[in-house]
Specification:
One of its GO terms (molecular function) is phosphatidylcholine binding. Its EC number is 2.7.7.15. The chain has 374 residues and is of the alpha/beta class. Among the domains are: 154 residues, Rossmann fold (3-Layer(aba) Sandwich); 92 residues, no CATH class. It has 13 helices and six strands. A six-stranded parallel beta sheet has the order 1-4-3-2-5-6. Strand 5, helix 6 and strand 6 form a beta-alpha-beta unit. The N and C termini lie far apart (123 Å).
């Protein structure tokens, strides 16, 4: 039975038939599935027995293939829903009837359930693949039950289901050719869900205490109640410390990031300042170029001053010499005083060499001045 076995199987997805080919009167999905009547199916349409080949080829719209799937469906989950989806789509035109066992039968043959039978009935009614729900379904299917509900085929996974003293409660259904197999969904079952709760019992007790449930409702003693409440307080303090720590780390990270940005900007500005300083005052800087050009301008505007003791190189000195004076008379200090016996007579103004010497001295002075100016 679907939902009775809580093992694991392979996850197989089956292609759904088009919506127009699916049978059943409930098409709008605006209301839950109906409960089956205690008298069974009261359809006036003749119910002829179908083979699997006929059902797979398709049946008229007024004669859907009635497929039955049963189980406990405790803690209704996706594995249950997928099994019902496969049963709904096993034939093109299917009317799916789901039988749900009562609490009495389940507790007798299977064990205690988390959900009550009424809760399980309602869970199945609101599954989109279900067309009809049979309450208090039998644990083992009988011919009378199949005839009463005009069931054509029974859908379940093909793993033998041992229960109620039988090696396989679906053996006679398989022998009659009325069995269609579905695949179980791996990794999800009612037993798995219960195992998670039992394994993490303390976690869920503390969770419900925080949500307002009393220790009496949770069947928890006074000592355990206070222990769980202290653990909740400790967890809150840990969470607060963790939050403060995360905020502190974030603050420190932001400060470090800003300080690194400031250092980076300071380094850039320092490099820029040093570069500008070197560009202005370096060996090839603008300041030296300006000084060099200023020196050239001053040299061009100011005459070159001759050294002391060389009056012959001064143009002013040469211009002050009279044309009729000889070089010897112009610089009496250049030659030592001669004796009276060695003195030559003074040259007369009419001497022919005096004008030539004066002209030669003027030319030398002019050329020297032009060289210094250049």
């Amino acid at each position: 039975m679907a939902g009775r076995r809580r093992g694991r199987g392979s996850n197989v997805q089956q292609q759904q038939a088009p919506q127009s080919q699916r049978g059943g009167p409930r098409r709008a999905l605006r209301e839950p599935a109906a409960f089956a009547k205690s008298t069974g199916c009261e359809s006036e349409i003749p119910h002829e027995k179908l083979t699997i080949a006929q059902a797979r080829r398709g049946t008229p719209a007024h004669r859907p293939v009635r497929v039955y799937a049963d189980g406990i469906f405790d803690l209704f989950h996706s594995g249950h829903a997928r099994a019902l989806m496969q049963a709904k789509n096993v034939f093109p035109n299917t009317y799916l009837i789901v039988g749900v066992c009562s609490d009495e039968l389940t507790h007798k043959f299977k064990g205690y359930t988390v959900m009550t039978e009424d809760e399980r009935y309602e869970a199945l009614r609101h599954c989109r693949y279900v067309d009809e729900v049979v309450r208090d379904a039998p644990w083992t299917l009988t011919a009378e039950f199949l005839k009463k509900h005009k069931i054509d085929f029974v859908a379940h996974d093909d793993i033998p289901y041992t229960s109620a003293g039988s090696e396989d409660v679906y053996k006679h259904i398989k022998e009659a050719g009325m069995f269609v197999a579905t695949q179980r969904t791996e990794g999800i079952s009612t037993s798995d869900l219960i195992t998670r709760i039992v394994r993490d019992y303390d976690v869920y007790v503390r969770r419900n205490l925080q949500r307002g449930y009393t220790a009496r409702e949770l069947n928890v003693g006074f000592i355990n109640e206070n222990k769980y409440r202290i653990q909740n307080q400790v967890d809150k303090m840990k969470e607060t410390v963790r939050t403060v720590e995360e905020k502190s780390k974030h603050f420190v990270y932001r400060v470090e990031e800003k300080s690194q940005d400031l250092i980076h900007k300071w380094e850039e500005k320092s490099r820029e300042f040093i570069g500008n300083f070197l560009q202005l005052f370096g060996p090839d800087g603008a300041w030296h170029v300006i000084q060099e050009r200023s020196g050239r301008m001053l040299q061009a505007l100011s005459p070159y001053s001759s050294p002391r003791g060389s009056p012959s190189s001064s143009p002013t000195r040469r211009r002050s010499v009279s044309p009729d004076s000889s070089p010897a008379s112009a610089s009496p200090s250049a030659s030592p005083p001669s004796s009276p016996s060695s003195l030559s007579p003074p040259s007369s103004p009419s001497s022919p060499s005096s004008p030539k010497k004066c002209a030669r001295s003027s030319l030398k002075a002019a050329s020297s001045y032009s060289r210094h100016v250049q």
